[in-house]
Amino acid sequence: MDIQSVGVVGAGTMGNGIAQVCAAAGLQVTMVDVSGNAVERGLAMIAANLGRQVKRGTIGADELDAIVARVHGTTHYEALKSVDVVIEAATENLELKLRILRQIEQIVGHGALIATNTSSISITQLAAVLERPDRCIGMHFFNPVPVMALVELIRGMQTSEESFSRAKALVDRIGKTAIDVRNSPGFAVNRILVPMLNEAIFALHEGLATPEDIDEGMMMGCNHPIGPLALADMIGLDTLLSVIQVFYDGFKDPKYRPAPLLVEMVAAGRLGRKSGRGFYQYS
Ligand code: NAD
């Protein structure tokens, strides 16, 4: 079945980005949030992002109007009734997501695909709450959604081949690149990235080099666009700690133990950019 319309649940950082890229690809989008303010902010964010594109000359003003007109923002879940796909992008909380997924399944048609943008919760566990778990899949977008080209497609144990194909067709339609990943803590990208960042913090703690030299080493020696410590500051050290903790708990393998310096910095409230101080100082 061809995808013409998309529902996005959650109008926050990721939700409004997902709504924007879907509408820009010509799809009708229904963006639902529990908070009317969040809906308004989400719509305003889409208009502001597109406004910057108009200024840069990448889209015309008439295109901006057309894209914005394709996004319908609401606080009513019933508006999802006839969409072909729903992408859940609400707050990262297991109980909340289980409730939302059940609610979505009660409203959408029998053929609708139900995707979740969770970054750490098991797709198999989320799918299990549905009457038809075969139609559930992980669609993990990256932040900022309009800029980042990748979507990880995560197959839960119950995800059907048809659901995977439909999700892949949607990723193609919105001009992004999909990778095919099996359900596992951190999926693929964070599984590789986060231990690397944690290792950089071990290296700093052991006095191997200064933060500047560690970052310069990875940028110059590995062609990374940003050093691991600067990236950790950007992600937020509390977020990074909670992700590495998911690996440690999920795999029960000491190779995923959080670097003691990371734990110490989070305890001290040095969370990176958002708190003004992490491995670097921010004004
Ligand atoms: P956010 O806090 O910016 O937005 C979450 C939104 O969900 C809020 O607007 C909130 O009002 C809404 N919400 C809460 N309960 C709801 C409900 N019952 N129904 C509808 N909406 C509800 O969060 P975010 O950063 O956009 O993250 C959303 C999801 O995307 C999370 O699962 C997160 O793990 C995942 N994710 C985040 C990033 C990132 O860098 N921020 C990257 C990839 C994936």
Automatic annotation (TrEMBL):
Where would I find the 3-hydroxyacyl-CoA dehydrogenase NAD binding domain in this sequence? 6-183
State a single Gene Ontology molecular function: oxidoreductase activity, acting on the CH-OH group of donors, NAD or NADP as acceptor
Does the keyword section mention NAD? yes
User: Which part of the chain is the 3-hydroxyacyl-CoA dehydrogenase C-terminal domain?
Assistant: 186-282
Report the record's Gene Ontology biological process terms: fatty acid metabolic process
Q: Name one Pfam family in it.
A: 3HCDH
Recite the UniProt keywords alphabetically.
NAD, Oxidoreductase
Q: Does the keyword Oxidoreductase apply?
A: yes
Positions that bind NAD(+): G10, A11, G12, T13, M14, G15, D33, E92, K97, S119, N143, K274
> Site (Important for catalytic activity): which residue positions?
H140
Q: What protein name does the entry list?
A: 3-hydroxybutyryl-CoA dehydrogenase
